[in-house]
Write a structure and sequence with these properties.
The protein is α+β, with helices and mostly antiparallel strands. Helices cover about 50% and strands about 20% of the residues. The longest helix has about 35 residues. It is elongated and about 90 Å long. The relative contact order is 0.07.
């Protein structure tokens, strides 16, 4: 029986991942495997390559032939060089940085928040304001600082605007009702 070390495709459309398997060369691509010896996720950055080196060495020793893709993976992990007795058995496998655990992230956030309460390193809150609103806010803060009576006239235009707003609303509702009447006719 001719034995191959090859990839067995799994996953969804456009989201493949593979298992490195030992199969009879006449079996279907995703058929029953003799043994699964690793996995390969090409879509991750860097690609995840996890191969059981001991089992690969055994199967290569008894005559299993790797496909081109698997041979490339074995060269990356260093298993092919180890089997052939060539230098560079450590391979060129890139390993993803481990994620920081949630507890340390939480403690870091607490420490940052504590510094903010002391006032020593208060985080600046940034709010997006249009230039007109920023100017208006600056004028409002300057006016109370200069004179207290300046506030009284400022309130009067606000009251006038409040009385004008309902009038605009009624015109808008009449226009909508008029459109509805035209649509019915």
């Amino acid at each position: 029986m001719a034995v191959k070390i090859r990839l067995k495709r799994m996953g969804k459309i456009r989201a493949p991942y593979y298992r490195v398997v030992i199969m009879d060369s006449r079996a279907k691509r995703d058929g029953r495997a003799i043994e699964e010896i690793g996995k390969y996720h090409p879509t991750e950055e860097p690609s995840l390559i996890d191969i059981d080196s001991e089992r690969v060495q055994y199967w290569l020793g008894v005559g299993a032939q790797p496909t081109e893709q698997v041979a490339a993976l074995l060269k990356i992990t260093g298993d092919w060089q180890k089997f052939k007795g060539e230098p560079g058995a450590e391979g060129t496998l890139k390993v993803k940085e481990p994620k920081p655990d949630k507890k340390s992230l939480y403690e870091a956030a607490l420490a940052k928040a504590d510094k903010g309460e002391d006032g020593s390193a208060a985080p600046e809150t940034r709010t997006k304001k249009s230039p007109k609103k920023a100017e208006k806010a600056a004028e409002e803060t300057e006016a109370p600082a200069e004179e207290a009576p300046a506030e009284e006239p400022a309130e009067a235009p606000a009251a006038e605007e409040a009385t004008e707003a309902p009038a605009e609303n009624t015109e808008a509702t009449e226009a909508v009702e008029g459109d509805a009447d035209k649509a019915e006719a």
